[in-house]
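Subject: Sanity check before I submit

Could someone independently write out the structure tokens for this chain? I want to compare against mine line by line before I put it in a report. The sequence has 462 residues.
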Amino acid sequence: MIILSVLIVQVSSAQPCPPSVFFTTQAEIDNFPIQYPNCKEILGEVQITGDNITNLNGLNAITYIGGGLTIWYTSNLVDLSGLENLTEVDALVISENDALTEISSLSNLAQIHSWITIIGNPNLNSLEGLEQITSIPVWWVNISDNDNLINLDGLNNLNYVNQLYVGNNDNIIDLSGFENLDSVFWLDIGDNDNLQNLNGLSSLSKVSHHLSIYSNNVLNSLTGFEQLTHIDGGLRIEENDALESMEGLEGIETIGGVFEISHNYDLQSLNGLESLKQVGGSLRVVGCNELISLSGLDSLTMIGGWLNIDENNLLETLSGTDNIEAESIENLSITYNPQLSTCEVQSVCDYLANPGGDIQIYVNAPGCNNSVEVEEACTVGIPEQETVSRLSLYPNPSFSEVTISRVEGIIDEVSIYNKLGQRVIHEVKPHHTIDVSGLPQGLYIVEIEWDGYQVRKKLIVQ
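---
Independent answer below. Compare away.
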């Protein structure tokens, strides 16, 4: 009977895994396998913080954490030895660990469901250990303020991220490590003082919402977007002091939201935007003091908000914006461009003839100092191509069918694009009458190819 009672005491002393656990001392980590000898799966959170924590060896039996794993403010933890068997967590936070140099012990971690946050680890030099992670479907990946990080190797198999922020990493020079990333919802790249180019994003084919590239002081190239053709939201390129052109964006055809190019003080041209046809929001070119012209935007036919051309000290002409349909411009601002004297491009003249919103034209060079001057210059006339004048759409506006008239011969192809640049109708060798009854109300661009010509006309569907 005595022996039996001892056995009962020993069995009852073995406790199950705690629902969550918070470690603040090395002794608590060392005692964990003694207190919980059979514990492999913790359903809640695990937090590790404390200046005297030097290793995590007492946690080497843990394979699963149902909540977040947070390792932060551990000034003497050099690596993550002890987490070799961890395979799955909901979220991973590694933050403000002054001595941490590497995280390779996470090499068996295959699933992170919510986010990765790696912030403020000044001696972390590698992300190796995260190679098995392929997607972060819910929230974000935040890699920022890691002063000694030189590249993003370790994230090489990541193919999808909901939101990705790479910022304030003073020593990365490119985005190597993202070679398999093909889709993001939101992408921010900012305040990386030595980032020179965006190489590493060569597989990125889709940005579902917004792309921002800002305050990267030595960034001189946007190369890295070879596969990217559409941005469903906005594109912001701001305060990249060494950027000289838009080269690297040659594949982008449509931007669904606001397109802002602002305060890139060495930007000399918009070369690289030759494929851009549609901007769903405002187009803003502001504070680019070395920019002389807007050439590079020649294929742009439609925007969906303000046209802002402001505070560009050397800009001389608006040539490059000629083909924007005036009906797609909601408001017009051309201000504080002291060298700008040529504003009488087709898009501006058409807008001034039938404005759809505000007009702000002032503090430019003579000839473009106010709307009256521009309207007078417009009366000189901007000749329309003969091929365009030979063609018309009737009725326009239309609610059912539209006829392409004054065209001799066979039409090769007709494409109709909506405000986002999406082709909504495509007909090869069509009749001269096109059914548009299935289109929502709005402004469209009709692209007609015939007899060696390609002509674009605006169409309003009611």
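---
OP: Matches mine. For the report I'm noting this point. The domain at 229-382 is CATH 3.80.20 (24 nucleotide stem-loop, u2 snrnp hairpin iv. U2 a'; Chain A).
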